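Data card: per-record layout.
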Amino acid sequence: AVVSTQSTGRIITPEWMDVDVLKEKKSEELEGQLFSKPLHPHFLELSTIILGISNEVKDADEVRTLIKDIWDVRAAKLRKSINKMMNHDSGGGKLLTHVEISNITILELNTIRGFFTASLDHLHNLRNHAEICLNDPRYN
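The structure for this 140-residue chain is written out next.
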């Protein structure tokens, strides 16, 4: 629904902002190691906006808490996935060359973008220097 500047519009709360739906999603995220499909591609942004401007959200405090809990669980999974990728060695000196993480939102991706790309650059430099040292007879 659209809200006019005179606040004469009415916001219809999306179905995924229902407490029971959020509790189920939280359980699903906690139980699975992989990311489950998000509630909505922009669930955190939309819920923040809706909760900030509407007095009509049923159980607003509980909805806010559940959304935050889901976000926190997904953020922890993302950190764990990055850590696992950064420490990956498939044996035989083969290094991980790519990774696929499904079902993350654009906001989640943007929260790690700077850190992740800088970390990959540093990891690449360290591995290059280690390889140079291993192949240089002065260090053997």
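Known properties of this structure: Helices lie at 19-31, 43-53, 60-86, 106-135. Residues 17 and 47 are 7 Å apart (CA to CA).

See the next section for split statistics.
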